[in-house]
Amino acid sequence: MQNHNYTKRICLLSLFIALAIIISFIESMIPLPIPIPGIKIGLANMITMIVLYYYGFIPAIIVSLLRVIIIGIVFTNMYMMIYSLSGALLSMIIMMIALKSHLFSETMVCILGAIFHNIGQLMIAIIFFQSFSILYYFPYLVLGGLISGLLIGLFCAYIFSRYSKILKKEQAIFIEDNKKI
Amino acid sequence: MIRKIKKTDMIVLTVIIVIMMISFMIVNNHRDGQYVKITVNQQIYGEYNLHQNQIIHIHNDNTIEIKDGKVTMIQATCLQQRCIKQGSISHNGETIICLPHKTIIEVVSSKEGQYDAKS
Q1: pTM over the 0.80 mark
Q2: Are A107 and B9 within 8 A, CB to CB?
Q3: Hey, are the CB atoms on A79 and B100 less than 8 Å from each other?
Q4: What does the buried/exposed string (b/e) look like for A1-16 if buried means 16 or more CB atoms within 10 Å of the residue's CB?
């Protein structure tokens, strides 16, 4: 029986990873007219948010990091992967803290995640370039994070309220399975 | 439909917007630059006069054009071509950054040290 439970868990998480990768891929095909390096819509953050809210921190970080690594290997190069990785890691930690503090609504958690994703990338860029002139982009990156985080966050809040029944049901099954393990 | 927006949300949002405004103001102190500084891989590639029209090739990866006091990236070998889309820069402190080639093109007001143009 134990093996069966693990299988279910692995399947669920890989399903989310696959979804996130597909969403990232679709997003990469949407051309953005904004000429600032590192700005993107961040649609995949939606999946991370759902996993974070309903399945916990560890599954969320697994989904987020594996998505970045797979996207990095398949579609982009090593440098871009390191940028995304640092951004994803920082944004996950901030989102977890924001969630655990119970002070913020879903939208705000998403906005914070998006902004700190950009800040994480900026920090790595400063280390790579050994130059602070990149800080020129800081306000633009914050603005970008604010807008994309707001849109994705509102959409997440909508999904959470619209499909709360299904999500909560799945969550209950997931927690029960975890207890068995 | 959407859960209530909390008070702390608004506080943090205001703080973020204020930080953004302040950093925008710091960044956009428009003064005309005098020189174009190119940094590749953390090393200074060269400094060029902004008011002298020329085309500069950087390691066959990027090509920038200095024209009428403005710097534009006109050709790049990277995939996303974001550096080209960044358009032209002319003010002090503005930068064009190419992440894949670790290249920074920066407008500065004065020469730092004695880096002569390699052209």
Answers
A1: no
A2: yes
A3: yes
A4: eeeeeeeebeebbeeb
